Amino acid sequence: MQAKAAVLRGSGADLEVQTVTVDDPGPGQVRVKLEACGLCHTDLSVMQSVLPRSDAMVLGHEGAGVVESVGDGVTSLAPGDHVIMTTTAFCGRCLQCIEGMYAQCERMPLNMGGNFPFHFDGIDLMPFASIGGLCEYTVVAENTAIKIPDDIPLVSASLLGCGVITGVGAAINTAEVRPGTTCAIWGCGGVGLSVLQGCRIAGASTLISIDANPAKLEYAKQLGATHVVDASREDALEQVMAITGGRGADYTFEAIGVGACMEQAYMAARRGGTATIVGVGRFDDTFSLSAGLVAITEKTIKGSFCGQGASVRDFPRMLDWYRQGKLELDSLVTTTYDIEDVAQAYEDMEAGKNARGVVVF
Ligand SMILES: [Zn+2]
Ligand SMILES: [Zn+2]
User: Fold this and answer.
1) Three-class DSSP labels, the chain
2) Nearest bound ligand to CA 101?
3) Domain check: are 145 and 265 in the same one?
4) In terms of domains, do 278 and 242 share one?
5) What is the pLDDT of residues 288-319, one digit of tens each?
6) How far is the CA of 191 from the centre of ligand 1 (A)?
7) Within this chain, do residues 300 and 337 fall inside the same structural domain, yes or no?
């Protein structure tokens, strides 16, 4: 079938909206009619070659929609099922999966390599993150599409696919935030705001959000931040130390992807506290730690990829929190776009205009 898609071709070319051919689902695959695809900063990093970029790909990885058809051997999904695509489909059999590190599944890179369901102008296009959500239809492995109840609005649900599970998962799965604690979060984009919500759901009582964009700090206040720090005017480390009476926060999070902010987050954790790194920065960006302080202060530094999420466990519980009013999703969607306007949507992202922009099909 034919479908409109956001296509990247060549090493430096701009994003184009093209009509591509989408394959029928093969064995073990499903074809999904996308209803919504959230726009994540990782797409922009790929476009700008900050992260590795393929010469021929369909962008987008925060997708939700309805199963349109299924291939041979598919047993868990049927046409009409509502689904969220997961960025961390896992095999459940490798050493990392057996240890519960689903986001580190050793077979995930293989999943990412072999599937080229889109074709345009004589070339096969790779779906970004095995999803390719910025297309009216995509073909994914059965374990990449997670069934959800029909009454959940798919535009809001799409955010779970990457930003929300990454942020909420960092607080709940990685840091294991305890009630009554103090959390400081660098970044108020879709991920940072989701870390904030995860900390609140876990029962943290002091929630400090930090961003250099004052408009984003307003989102943080609406989502439960007890303190905000405008890093364009104030030193974030000094402010967190002042708010915590000089002790530092029990948990700190970096959700931007900048080495200097990661260093601040480490320094702002209290003695024995935990700094969780969520942001993915440039591979050549670094930060340094005092060789004297690491042992003496007994801080823990943790990496958290995709919130250490196991989507089959985490999507249902996050949707329960959404239903109970604990996890806000609807208001995170600050602008919706037509696929034709996807380039503008990424310009708005760069300008810091949205908590989350979403392409609605
Ligand atoms: Zn993402
Ligand atoms: Zn595995």
Assistant:
1) CEEEEEEEECCCCCCEEEEEEECCCCCCEEEEEEEEEECCHHHHHHHCCCCCCCCEEECCCEEEEEEEEECCCCCCCCCCCEEEECCCCCCCCCHHHHCCCHHHCCCHHHHHHCCCCEEECCEEEEEHHHCCCCECEEEEEHHHEEEECCCCCHHHHHHHHCHHHHHHHHHHHHCCCCCCCEEEEECCCHHHHHHHHHHHHCCCCEEEEEECCHHHHHHHHHCCCCEEEECCCCCHHHHHHHHCCCCCEEEEEECCCCHHHHHHHHHHEEEEEEEEECCCCCCCCCCCCCCCHHHHHCCEEEECCHHHCCHHHHHHHHHHHHHCCCCCCHHHEEEEECHHHHHHHHHHHHCCCCCEEEEEC
2) 2
3) no
4) yes
5) 999 999 999 999 999 999 999 889 999 999 99
6) 9
7) no
Q: What is the pTM of this model?
A: 0.94
Handedness of CA 257, 259, 261, 266 (dihedral sign): positive
In a domain, 321, yes or no: no
310 within domain boundaries: no
Which ligand minimizes its atom distance to the CA of 307? 1
Residues 178 and 142 placed together within one structural domain of the fold: no
Separation of 89 CA from ligand 2 center, angstroms? 9
Residue 37: domain span? 2-161+328-360
Same domain, 252 and 124: no
Tell how far the Cα of 118 is from the centroid of ligand 1, in angstroms: 21
- Which ligand does the CA of 94 lie closest to? 2
> Is pLDDT at 272 greater than 80 in this prediction?
yes
Q: What is the pLDDT of residues 99-151, one digit of tens each?
A: 989 889 888 754 555 689 999 999 999 999 889 999 999 999 999 999 999 99
For residues 134 and 124, give the distance between their C-alpha atoms in angstroms, rounded to a whole number.
16
Same domain? 121 vs 221 = no
Per the CB < 8 A criterion, the answer to whether 67 and 145 are in contact is yes
What is the per-residue pLDDT for 249? 98
CA of 162 to the centre of ligand 1 (A): 5
Q: Which two tokens stand for residue 11?
A: 């090493």
